Amino acid sequence: MGLQYTFHAPHGGADFLGWRKTRAGSTEIVYDDGVTRRMVWRVASNDPSEARISEALRVAVRSLRVVPTLYDELKKRAIAIERVAG
Asked: What percent of the chain has pLDDT over 70?
């Protein structure tokens, strides 16, 4: 596995968001609620900005509605994603 960056919800929830670079060089975003739901998206943008992805994840994980906020934050930053699991 390549690079990984993770963020955990500060509001007592088990929500986890992270992004990683695969061996093939693609960037993936991972969400896990700590109980039943795990979702993985591939970043479809060419040459995605790691700083913009990290900031979007940081904002989303602090929200009570992590996944909808994640979609909003990625859209604001023009980061296209495609769901690959979950």
From this structure: 84
Give the C-alpha separation, 35 to 49, whole Å.
30
Q: Which amino acid is at 18?
A: G
pLDDT, residue 1, reads: 42
For residue 16, give Cα distances in angstroms to 29, 35, 41, 47, 67.
11, 11, 14, 24, 10
The more confidently predicted of residues 83 and 6 is 83
Packing angle of the helix pair 50-61, 66-76 (nearest 10 deg): 150
Bridge partner list, 68:
none
Number of domains, the chain: 1
Averaged over 5-34, what is the pLDDT? 80
Structure tokens, 81: 């994603």
Domain membership of residue 56 as a residue range: 4-85
